[in-house]
Every structure is written in structure tokens, then in C-alpha cells.
UniProtKB/TrEMBL annotation:
Belongs to the PEPCase type 1 family. The keyword Phosphoprotein does not apply. The gene is ppc. It catalyses: oxaloacetate + phosphate = phosphoenolpyruvate + hydrogencarbonate. This is Phosphoenolpyruvate carboxylase. The lineage of its organism: Bacteria, Pseudomonadati, Pseudomonadota, Gammaproteobacteria, Vibrionales. Keywords: Carbon dioxide fixation, Lyase, Magnesium. Transmembrane segments: none annotated. GO terms for molecular function: phosphoenolpyruvate carboxylase activity. It is an enzyme of class 4 (lyase). PROSITE patterns: PEPCASE_1, PEPCASE_2. Forms oxaloacetate, a four-carbon dicarboxylic acid source for the tricarboxylic acid cycle. Its EC number is 4.1.1.31. PANTHER family: PHOSPHOENOLPYRUVATE CARBOXYLASE. NCBIfam families: PRK00009.1.
Length: 876
């Protein structure tokens, strides 16, 4: 294998050896011997030895119950450590891998020079750059906060070990620290025992900001500024905020009864408390640093007669931040606290610090100003006084239920039974009315009261604390107007972005007509102030129609929305509900953004970052700087050098591919009566509900079947048995259909010239590389009734045919030829994932045969679920 990965493999080997020592110390030589035997057999089986595969199965099927948990934990931890080594490799000094070299911003400027893009256009695009990353809790995020902290520490040790000037004594000390951290991780609970509350999830999000993003943002902006200066001779404005962060943790109530208006209020307070705490640490450091005495007139006026003027200003700020933290602490605990002398808005932080910054520059101390002080000013513009802006998400019928209950109470009839035209007329009339709609003596039902209380909680906040109000399962113009009316009735004084989320195939296809209708309403046009946000759903559309049909519907919806808003002279922000997995729109950020329709990023990028992908892309400062650079360069490239408009014949062929793939997908998932029993038996879907992952229930309707299952556990279950069905089913069949019809040359042209299509195929390749036909077959044989075996065989045969179809179009001999780094990364982890798969099948076999499985068996099963998720990485 290419030498460029030797440093990575060396780190994996070292961490694995240290884990082995920990296992031997904790459980003795015999257990370590057993783990090593399984690992070696797995490696040999991967290389093609059928004898060793049989021995591996035999070893795992004959493991005594008391060894199941430690063996499961061993392989799960191997995968955690492999992921850490790989994540570290992307920022390592030894890595020649494309992730870090060449720098993505340098590569962008090289392309801009080649294409003769003017300096004026480049500077304008940089000024307009607007990236809002929305952190969301995630049912597949297994790692606890304590474990994440240990992972960060392990990374620091790997970084130190790379320094060539380390003495033997220093190296020994770092290695000893690594051994301690690995032992700490081994002796801690890997997974939670209790399901996290929405507050726990919010705290997890704040920990990511504190441990990584707080450091990464100023570092990224410094890096970006240096590149702009070098390439354009232009500095990044000091108040530029090309990147901001929002959150769904504590605001996403869609199908989550645990997110209440009270929880939302508390999360907003906690967010402000954390911001005050982080600024306080920065200001304390500035007090010790800025001991200069020379200043300009403005600072002299602010500081009075103080000998050290900067310190005087900073000490005043320190007192206010301390007050702010104490007052918020009291509010969180439900105690009375005076609110005077606290920081309420961004100007109270920015103005005194910016005055200090200007003064230092005026007095020839620019080098001091451009240190920590500049970092703090940039943090203020990015994080404000609220740290992250909280989005609110609720399902559309919850709003119409409020209005329905109200119209019945007022004797106006049942709103839910009205035509769409009548609903819109009523809503616009009430939105234009000066009198209140909610009667004082009305006592709504508990569900309705909760929706109104949430709107009141929003109305009590400053605008800066909040992001968007997202309406899931939005279908009509009245769904959007209803939220505007409820916010108005709750006393909301500011304009909030009310963002419809179109997520099924039908809803995506109707998105254009809904937004068109809204744009034709005078009240609405006046109210939105020429800005519209629309969210595109990836997971539910793929679950509904398969990835090929969903991908084309998403593209089509974005394109038509861009056109509708351009015609109306309204700026459109598309909000992408992507996940880490292909079934949820996940692809490498750069490729995904460049595969969108032309002009779809003009209004900036808003995208969800979820669970384990937050940790992998943003969890370490150096890695987060890389991720932010990739986002920035991709958006600038898409806006300055838009991808081509698809040719009419490409569109027509995509329509065919979409229709054929959707039919093929639905024939299996909806049309085959054996499918649901097969899904339930061949995957750990039923057992997933027991895993204390996210705060949200796995099903929207606890009594429903597959159709009521959330998209995330649907994909998660299939990734566990390595068939990963939702991420490919139907797509390859449609491609083969088109090849058979003589369209191979056209497909090849689309693959070469159209980023949308080539990215689809690249995503399919990645999924195919992660599938494992032998493992999927083993689950069938161990867990399903023999009558269902033909069903599994048929799906696996289809998978093999689909792989051939995609390779034919790409003219490739094997998968991921163009992405050796990705292929190596998957290969590295497979040796550890496959024994976990086989062990999971064994544990499912044993637990399903016991009426009340032993807690130890259940825990071992949970560890395999967590371990496979870690190994597959972009799982849900």
C-alpha cells in the first residue's frame, strides 16, 4: 500500500498495542489471547481465507457468556482508537493526504486565476460569504462527553509524539500519558446507561463549542485572512463573520415530547451562561496581557485617569461578565437575581474591546492588537452573547391543531376541514388585523397550550438568540402562514425566519408551487423583507423513494426555488438537512456543494451537522479549521465558477432514472409482504429502541410499522448488518436499465461533465465499499427464518449487479479508484468491524432466544451496536 499512509498505520498499531496491554492488565493473558486470535482470523478471512473465516465464526459462536462483553468492548475500542488516529492523520505534519495538502483555499485561488475571475468579483463573493452550521443532536451519537474529552487528550499526545526534537525522557512521558488515557477509557462506561435528556444534548453541543470551535473560529479566520492578503492583497474585515453556528439541541420538538417550552427557555439561559463564562476566561487573560500605558483619546476617555487604561476597561468588562454569569446562574436555578450591570447585547462587548484594538493600532502596537484581542473580537462576531442561535422545529399539524381548536371554540367551524384557499384567506386576514385573536378566557388542551407556550418563549427572547422556526412535514402555504400568525399572537416583536421543510418526494415536487403562492400574497411579501429560507429534507425523501429519485427531486426543488425567488427579487437561503450517511444526503462537503444547481448558494449555506459527524468534522480545533476552510472554498468556487446547467437530454435521462429507481425501491420496501418481517429479523431494528441514544423516540408513532420509523434508525439498522439497503436500493437498477436501453454513452458523459451525477455515483461507490455481502448473509443464516433466505439472497444479488452497473458507467476496474484515502480508511477499520458484526449476530441470536436476556448480554449487544456505528462512521 502507498507509503503515504505509513504514519497512520504506525499510529494505529501503537494505539492498538497499548490497548492490548490495558486488556491484559484488566482481564489477563487468556482474554487478550482470545482477542488477538479473533483479530488475526478476521485479517486472514478479509484476505480471502475461507478456512479462517469458518474458524472465526466458530470462535465467536463458542465464546462463553462472560467473555462476550470484554471481547465486544475490545473491538469497539480498537475502532475508536483507529478513528482517532485517522482523524489526527488529516492534520498531521506527516500527512501528504489531499485533505491537508494542498490547502483548500490556495487550491481555490489557483482555480480562480486559471479561470480569469476578476479580483473585484472574488472580493465581493468573500464579503457575501455566509456559512451557518446547525449543530443537531443525533440518535447515533454514542460517545459520552467524558469519552470525547479523552479522545481530545489522546490527539494531543499523538501531536507531541511527532516532534522530532523530543528527548527519550519526554517521549516516554507522552507514551505513558497515552497508556493512562487508553486505560481510563477502557475502565469507563463506553455508552450511557440512561437516555440523555434534551438538556444533556444541549450541554454536549456546548462542550463541542468550548473544546473545539471557540479555538477553531479565530484560527480559521486568521488563516483565511493570510490567504486573502497573499492572493488578493486584501484583508478580511475585522467584523467579518463568514461562519456562524446555530443549534437544534433543546429546540427540536418534532416528535420529541421531552422538548418543552420550559426546556427551550432553560437551554437558552445555559447557552448565554456558557458564552459569558468563555468570554470571562478570555477577558481575564487580556487583563494580564494588556498592561500598556500609551493610548488614543477614545480609550483615555473610557479609562479616565487610570495609569493602565486598557486594564481599566477590561476590569470593568470582567466585572460585568462575572455579574452576567452569576445572574444567569440564579435564573437557571429558579432564584431571583438583579439584572443590572450585566451584558445583554453584543455592542456592550464589542465597543470597549474594539476601542482598545483601534488604540493599540494608533499607538504603533498593532502586533499586540492582532493577537488574542483580535481573536476575541472575531469570536464576538461569530458567537454573539448567546454562543449559538437556537432553531425551533415543530411538525406542521401541531400548528393547524392549535388554529382548529381555536376556530371551533370561537364558533367559526373546524379550520382543519377548510380548503387551502379558505385557510390562507383566514390566516392573511388575521395577520393583517390589529385586534388579538386569542381570547383571554380560552383554556386550550395541553398539546395546544404547549405550542402557544413555545411561541411565547420565542417572543420573550431577543432576535439574536434565535435562528429559524423550521416546520417539518410542511406541505402548503397555510403551514407557513399559521406559524407567522401564532408568533404574532404570542407577542413576537421581531421577524423570525419561518422555514418550511419539504421532505417527502411529493412535498419536494410541490415546493415550487407553495413558495410561488406565498410570494403572491402582499402581506407576506411585505413581511419577509425580501428574504426567504427553505429547508430541503434528505432523509425522509430517501426513505420514501430511494436515493436516486430523492436526489433528483432535491436538485429539481432547489433549482425551481432559486428561479421562483429570483423572479420575485427575494434572496433565498437553502437550508440542507443533510446527515453523515448517504441515505441522508451525506457526501464529502466539497463534492456535495459543487453538485448543487447553479446559483443555489448565492444566499449562503445553512446545513445541519449531526451527532458523530460533528465530532469527526468539528470535534478538534485543527480538524475544524480544515472543515471550515473546505466549506468556505467550496461555496466560493460554486458562486464564482458555477457548475454547468444540465443539458436537456441529461434532464430527460434523470427523469427516467428517477422513475425506474423509485419503482424498484418501492417494489421491495412497500410491495413485498416478506420485506418487513425480513427487515425486523435480519437487522437489530427492534433492539435499537433499547439503546439510550438520543432523547427522541425512534418512532413518530409507537404502534406503527416501518413507515412510522424515523429515517435515522431506518438507515442505522441497515448499516449494522452491512447491507446498507436504503443507501443504494433502486439506483443501480435504474442505471442498468438505461445501459440496456443504449444510454451508456450519455451516462458516461453525465459522469464526466455534470458534478451532480458524478457525485451521486461517488456516494454510491462509498456505500458499496462499506457493504459486506458475506456479513449480510451471515446475519440471514443466524437470525432469519429459512423461508426468508431467498429474499436476502435476491437483495445481495441485486447489490452485486448494481456495483457492476456503476463501475461500467465510470469505466473503473474497482470501487473508489479515485479516492484511495477513503478506500484505505475503510480497509483499516474493516478488520475490527467484521468480528463485531459476527459477534452482534451471535448476541442477537442468544438474546432473542431468552425471554428476559441477562443485562450483561444486553450490554454487550449495545457495545457492538456502538462499535459498528463507530467503524462505519457515517451511519445515520
Amino acid at each position: 500500500m502507498n507509503e503515504k499512509y505509513s504514519a497512520l498505520r504506525s499510529n494505529v498499531s501503537m494505539l492498538g498495542h497499548m490497548l492490548g496491554t490495558t486488556i491484559k492488565d484488566a482481564h489477563g493473558e487468556a482474554l487478550l489471547g482470545k482477542v488477538e486470535t479473533i483479530r488475526k482470523l478476521s485479517k486472514s478471512a478479509r484476505a480471502g481465507s475461507q478456512d479462517d473465516r469458518a474458524k472465526l465464526i466458530d470462535e465467536l459462536q463458542n465464546l462463553p457468556d462472560d467473555q462476550l462483553l470484554p471481547v465486544a468492548r475490545a473491538f469497539s475500542q480498537f475502532l475508536n482508537l483507529t478513528n482517532i488516529a485517522e482523524q489526527y492523520h488529516t492534520v498531521s505534519r506527516h500527512s501528504e493526504e489531499h485533505i491537508c495538502s494542498p490547502d483548500s483555499i490556495d487550491a481555490l485561488f489557483a482555480k480562480l486565476d486559471e479561470q480569469d475571475i476578476s479580483q473585484f468579483d472574488s472580493i465581493q463573493a468573500i464579503r457575501d460569504l455566509n456559512i451557518d452550521l446547525v449543530l443537531t443532536a443525533h440518535p447515533t451519537e454514542i460517545a459520552r462527553r467524558t469519552m470525547i474529552h479523552k479522545l481530545v487528550q489522546i490527539n494531543k499526545c499523538l501531536s507531541k509524539l511527532e516532534l522530532s526534537e523530543l528527548s527519550a525522557c519526554e517521549r516516554q512521558r507522552v507514551e505513558r500519558r497515552l497508556e493512562q488515557l487508553i486505560a481510563q477509557a477502557w475502565h469507563s462506561d463506553v455508552i450511557r446507561k440512561q437516555r440523555p435528556t434534551p438538556l444533556d444534548e444541549a450541554k454536549w453541543g456546548f462542550a463541542v463549542v468550548e473544546n473545539s470551535l471557540w479555538h477553531a473560529v479565530p484560527e480559521f479566520l486568521r488563516h483565511f485572512d493570510e490567504k486573502l492578503t497573499a492572493h488578493l492583497g486584501e484583508r478580511l474585515p475585522i467584523d467579518a463573520a463568514p461562519v456562524t453556528f446555530s443549534s437544534w439541541m433543546g429546540g427540536d420538538r418534532d416528535g420529541n415530547p421531552f422538548v418543552t417550552s420550559e426546556v427551550t427557555r432553560e437551554v437558552l439561559l445555559l447557552s448565554r451562561w456558557k458564552a459569558a463564562d468563555l468570554y470571562l476566561q478570555d477577558v481575564k487573560e487580556l487583563v494580564s496581557e494588556l498592561s500598556m500605558v500609551k493610548c488614543n483619546d477614545e480609550v483615555r476617555e473610557l479609562a479616565g485617569d487610570e495609569h493602565e487604561p486598557y486594564r481599566a476597561i477590561l476590569k470593568d468588562l470582567r466585572a460585568k461578565l462575572t455579574n452576567t454569569r452569576d445572574v444567569l446562574d440564579a435564573k437557571i436555578k429558579g432564584l431571583d437575581a438583579p439584572s443590572f450591570g450585566i451584558i445583554n447585547d453584543i455592542e456592550q462587548l464589542w465597543n470597549p474591546l474594539y476601542a482598545c484594538y483601534q488604540s493599540l493600532h494608533d499607538c504603533d502596537m498593532g502586533i499586540i492588537a492582532d493577537g488574542l484581542l483580535l481573536d476575541v473580537l472575531r469570536r464576538i462576531k461569530c458567537f454573539g452573547v448567546h454562543l449559538v442561535r437556537l432553531d425551533i422545529r415543530q411538525e406542521s399539524t401541531r400548528h393547524s391543531n392549535v388554529i382548529s381548536e381555536l376556530t371551533r371554540y370561537l364558533g367559526l367551524g373546524d379550520y382543519d376541514q377548510w380548503s387551502e384557499q379558505d385557510k390562507v384567506a383566514f390566516l392573511v386576514r388575521e395577520l393583517s388585523s390589529k385586534r388579538p385573536l386569542l381570547p383571554r378566557d380560552w383554556e386550550p388542551s395541553a398539546e395546544v397550550k404547549e405550542v402557544i407556550d413555545t411561541c411565547k418563549a420565542i417572543a420573550d427572547q431577543p432576535r439574536e438568540a434565535l435562528g429559524a422556526y423550521v416546520i417539518s412535514m410542511a406541505r402548503t402555504a397555510s403551514d407557513v402562514l399559521a406559524v407567522h400568525l401564532l408568533l404574532q399572537e404570542a407577542g413576537c416583536k421581531f421577524r423570525m425566519d419561518v422555514c418550511p421543510l419539504f421532505e417527502t418526494l411529493e412535498d419536494l415536487n410541490n415546493a415550487e408551487s407553495v413558495i410561488k403562492q406565498l410570494m403572491s400574497i402582499d402581506w407576506y411579501r411585505g413581511y419577509i423583507q425580501n428574504h426567504q429560507m427553505v429547508m430541503i429534507g434528505y432523509s425522509d425523501s430517501a426513505k420514501d423513494a430511494g436515493v436516486m429519485a430523492a436526489g433528483w427531486a432535491q436538485y429539481h426543488a432547489m433549482e425551481s426555488l432559486v428561479n421562483v425567488c429570483e423572479e420575485a427579487a427575494v434572496e433565498l437561503t437553502l437550508f440542507h438537512g443533510r446527515g453523515g450517511s448517504i441515505g441522508r444526503g451525506g457526501a464529502p462537503a466539497h463534492a456535495a456543494l459543487l453538485s448543487q444547481p447553479p446559483r443555489s448558494l448565492k444566499g449562503g449555506l445553512r446545513v445541519t451537522e449531526q451527532g458523530e459527524m460533528i465530532r469527526f468534522k468539528l470535534g478538534l480545533p485543527e480538524v475544524a479549521v480544515n472543515s471550515l476552510s473546505l466549506y468556505a472554498s467550496a461555496i466560493l468556487e460554486a458562486n464564482l465558477m458555477p457548475p454547468p446547467q444540465p443539458k436537456q437530454e441529461w434532464r430527460e435521462l434523470m427523469d427516467v432514472l428517477s422513475e425506474v429507481s423509485c419503482d424498484a425501491y418501492r417494489d421491495v420496501v412497500r410491495g413485498n409482504e416478506e420485506f418487513v418481517p425480513y427487515f425486523r429479523a435480519a437487522t437489530p431494528e427492534l433492539e435499537l429502541g433499547k439503546l439510550p441514544l438520543g432523547s427522541r423516540p425512534a418512532k413518530r408513532n409507537p404502534k406503527g410499522g416501518v413507515e412510522s420509523l424515523r429515517a435515522i434508525p431506518w438507515i442505522f439498522a441497515w448499516s449494522q448488518n452491512r447491507l446498507i439497503l436504503p443507501a443504494w436500493l433502486g439506483a443501480g437498477e435504474a442505471i442498468q436499465f438505461s445501459i440496456d436501453k443504449g444510454h451508456a454513452p450519455q451516462l458516461e458523459e453525465m459522469c464526466r461533465e455534470w458534478p451532480f451525477f458524478s457525485t451521486r455515483l461517488g456516494m454510491l461507490e462509498m456505500v458499496f465499499t462499506k457493504t459486506n455481502i458475506g456479513i449480510a448473509e451471515y446475519y440471514d443464516q443466524r437470525l432469519t427464518d429459512k423461508s426468508l433466505w431467498p429474499m436476502g439472497q435476491k437483495l445481495r444479488d441485486q447489490l452485486q449487479q448494481d456495483i457492476k452497473a456503476v463501475l461500467t458507467v465510470e469505466n473503473s476496474a474497482h470501487l473508489m479508484e479515485q479516492n484511495p484515502w477513503g478506500a484505505e480508511s475503510i480497509r483499516l477499520r474493516n478488520i475490527y468491524v467484521e468480528p463485531l458484526n459476527m459477534l452482534q449476530a451471535e448476541l442477537l441470536y442468544r438474546t432473542r432466544r431468552q425471554e428476559t436476556p441477562s443485562p450483561m448480554l444486553e450490554e454487550a449487544l449495545m457495545v457492538t451496536i456502538a462499535g459498528i456505528a463507530t467503524g462505519m462512521r457515517n451511519t445515520g
